[in-house]
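Morning!

This is the sequence you dropped in the shared folder:
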Amino acid sequence: MGVALGNVAGDHQHLNWASYRALLELAHEYGWQPTGTEPGQWCDPETGELDSQLSPDPDEWDGTYVSNDYQWVTKEDAANIAEALERALEDKQGFGNEAKHWIRDFIAFCRGGDFYIA
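The structure's back. Tokens below.
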């Protein structure tokens, strides 16, 4: 099982949970301060109204980054993740070429703006 990510630019990333968590932990190590995710919103396709049975209560949402609930990472938070990962690439010489490519791909994805976690 893993995580599917999609941003407002139309880009997608599919990662296993271990890789996704490693990216977030590395970003945190290099200064990213998580602001919390925003809960997903589900609308009734016939009426366009918010479906309260499917949408989490915003007052009870815990802001998690590690669930498949179609929660959203804000544009600012995504940019902060990207900046922290860029600092990590500049600082750490021990990354192999494959790891560098993988991190750079995620940085580019985060630069695409808001993204959902599914």
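Headline: The chain is about 35% helix and 15% strand.

More detail when I'm at my desk.
O.
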